[in-house]
């Protein structure tokens, strides 16, 4: 896990404030205390797209700031149809299981 995270990289996160899994985001930029990210919406088996949230009537990109320690998997390559590969899905499931077991 020593590789660096660059802008536009897709990463997996484990943020305690959000319960749904998996948590995938695209890095927008590195900030002084972590990373600015653009959340992505999808599922283990379905396609992924950049998440939007409501701002009044408009839908705006869901941007957030995270700490380096929230990242559990770096450099995720989505398949040509924007899905997670089987290898990534298995890795993420085991990483989340380990986090859940260790946290509770």
UniProtKB/TrEMBL annotation:
Molecular function terms from GO: chromatin binding; cohesin loader activity
GO CC term (a single one): Scc2-Scc4 cohesin loading complex
InterPro entries referenced in this protein's UniProt entry, alphabetically: Scc2/Nipped-B
Biological processes per GO annotation: brain development; chromatin looping; digestive tract development; embryonic viscerocranium morphogenesis; establishment of mitotic sister chromatid cohesion; establishment of protein localization to chromatin; heart morphogenesis; regulation of gene expression
Protein name: NIPBL protein
Organism: Mola mola
